[in-house]
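chain below, 331 aa
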Amino acid sequence: MIDSNSQSLADVYERVRHVVTEPEWQLFAPLIAEINRLKRERSAVILAHNYQAAVIYHGIADITGDSLQLAAKARDAQAEVLVVCGVHFMAETAKLLNPDATVILPHMGAGCSLADSITAADVLELRARYPGVPVVSYVNTSAAVKAVSDICCTSSNAVQVVESLGASRVIFLPDEHLARFVASQTETEIIAWSGECIVHVEFRADEMRALRRQYPEIKIIAHPECRDEVLREADYVGSTTGLVDYIAAHRPPRVALITECTMADNVAAEFAGIEFIQPCALCPYMKRITLEAVRDSLLSLQPQIEIAPEVAHGARQAVGRMLGVAPGVRR
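prediction:
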């Protein structure tokens, strides 16, 4: 008789063996088995962002995706406990959309440089400086910032959100590089904040040109949080989901994903035969979520995400409006 749990672990290893050695797997496998048992006991669902380690993404996650997908699926999740394997703003978004669930972030130090770059007071100052101009906040912001915004967006639907407002100009925050990209895709005037992602700004145009010299047939696909000089070198620009969709549609034999490099580890499992050439930049915040941290959080049901009611009301409205705008196709 085949043990179903052993078979499940064997299947997981087949999906991660390109990045996990056999000795490492001997350490990971018992943790994965324990976490999956605890999930059942706690009536928990685990949500994992694309930038999570492969053993989390393929080994324990029930729901995976980019920020927009995780937000939508958190809203609809039928579970007593939501464990967010991502960063703090993602856990807050899950709590906003599923307030009756216990929402856990396994490591409270899993933050975001973009979310840290702006405060609610900054947004109110912008509103005073530009009266009547609507505020679009990237989902990579705190609940307090969302609460004083008109609508949120992700990189999947940023252009559609801006244009849905029907305004001649909008305040767009906090990522200046995404704001510049959005401005290039719409006639709406964009008033940008000067925040940036510590991962995506590491990439440079000369790296892209070096890749093309070494691999003339390579397809370079980049996230719009990258610098404009990098986006100009790319064959395609899109959200994390958009990048995966591009690979699925075009099946390039060799591709460089210009985003957080763990994503390539996860995507590679879905696309046998495609070679991923990855100039690597890691998010230190995402890497604070580990199997051990997830296991401990399921044992203790801590740390939990709580949002003050006066903040949650406005933030929930802004996120809800975002979910009403469909993502578009990027170039």
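The chain has a mean pLDDT of 93. The first strand starts at residue 44 and ends at 49.
thats it, cya
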